[in-house]
Structure formats: C-alpha cells, structure tokens
Write a structure and sequence with these properties.
Shape: globular
Distance between the termini: 44 Å
Order of helices and strands: HHHHHHHHHH
Oligomer: single chain
Strand content: under 5%
Length: 207
Amino acid sequence: MLPIDFTVLYQPFALLLLAGSYIIGSISSAVLVSRSMGLADPRTVGSGNPGATNVLRSGNKKAAALTLIGDLAKGLLPLLLARQLPVENELLCAMALTAIIGHMYPLFLRFKGGKGVATTLGALLGVQPLLALIWILLWLSVAKLTRYSSLAALTATLSLPLIAWFGLQDPNITLLSSLIAILVSWRHRKNINNLLQGSEGQIGKGS
C-alpha cells in the first residue's frame, strides 16, 4: 500500500473544504426537525442526545426518520460535492472525518452533539460505498440478533478498520475507519457501560 500524503491537507483550498464539511456536520438535524414540527428540544428529553433515536422517543416516527436522513446527508453531501472537484483521496477521507466530528462536537450547539452513527454511514457512502454496505449488513445482523442498537453500531463500526485493511488495502480508508471507530466508541461509552451492566435499552423496548 502506498503511504498517506498528509501534505495535501495543508493547502488553503483543502482547509476551506475541511472547514465546510465540519460546519455542515455541525448543523443539528434533530434540533431543526423538532423545532419545525413543534416537538420538544431533543437535548431536554430522554438521553439528551440530539439524534434520531432520541427524537423517536417523542413518539413521532416521521420526525425521527427526517432526523436520520438529515444526519446521513451531512456526511454524504460534502463528499458528493467534493467528488465534482479534482481532490485527492486523502482530502476526501479527511472531509468525511470532519463532517462526523462536526456532528459529534457541533459548533452551533456548544460542541455537544450526537453519537455520529448516521453521519458515519453517510460519510462511508461518500468515500467507499462497498464499506458502507458492509456496515449496514453488520448493523442489521447484530440488531436483529440482540435488539441492541448501540451494540449493533459498535460492532459494525469497530469492524471497519479490519475490513478496510484486509479487504480494501487502502491506507487512507483504513486510517479513516480506525479514527471513526475510536470516536464512535468514545461517544458510546455510556452505552458500553450499560451493556456491561445489563441496563441498556433494547430496540422496541423503550430507552
């Protein structure tokens, strides 16, 4: 595998694209959808997490679906736009990462954002659709077997670096997936503790 060329990230145009993807990632779909539909701010109910799962706790499935689509789009759209330009793979992967970081630590919500699962999927679709498909299949399989959404997300995400390393042999995507795995695991640390204690809520059985 060829080494990663980080120097492409230091160019003014690259920095502009990275800032743009972070800002797009910082837009909270959960808050915007909830406000537009007259629902409670997701940061004040349930887990306090501004994401689709917490919006679903309002009982409004349409709002939750729109939030999910919005969060996924935040990871995908910046990359689709960047692909119309002559950008290096290193920059594309870096933009995927900054979009996810924007969702997790949004500029507009005092850096208190969501867990990044849907935005991660969107970013993977923009960088490597095959890897995104594998992620979806892993999530669905684990979720069906265990009924734990958090365990499904963690299993699928933690599998990404190995799949990228042995299957794709792309150093940029391997590094990206490794960093995503670290970030998603950190954002799910409370869920991990709940899983270990047997107190994590299952899909369809409340929070």
